[in-house]
Amino acid sequence: MNLIERAKSPTPKFFRVLRSIGLALLAISGSVIAAPVVLPVTVVMVAGYLAVAGGVISAVSQMTVDPSTTLNRTNKGEEENQNKPRDGD
């Protein structure tokens, strides 16, 4: 399964919720970083870390795949690979 197929595959419910939480962290931290008022350096620094964490959580959650939908695809892919000749054969 390549990266595009993995991104398009159905995501389990837990990871959809986790993805939403990550996107919310990303949005809140982006708002704090872009605030037009002067905030303490510590607050802006923490917001930067939250932005990174939210982005990572969202990306990883999007790449998870429901195992019941991948079983058929992986078996099919293994069969196709077994039929292909290798370089040394």
TrEMBL record:
Report the domain of life of the source organism.
Bacteria
Q: Which UniProt keywords apply?
A: Membrane, Transmembrane, Transmembrane helix
**Region ranges (Disordered):** 67-89
Residues that span the membrane, as ranges: 44-65
- Transmembrane as a keyword of this entry, yes or no, is yes
Q: Where is the composition biased (Basic and acidic residues)?
A: 75-89
Question: In its UniProt entry, what is this protein called?
Answer: Uncharacterized protein
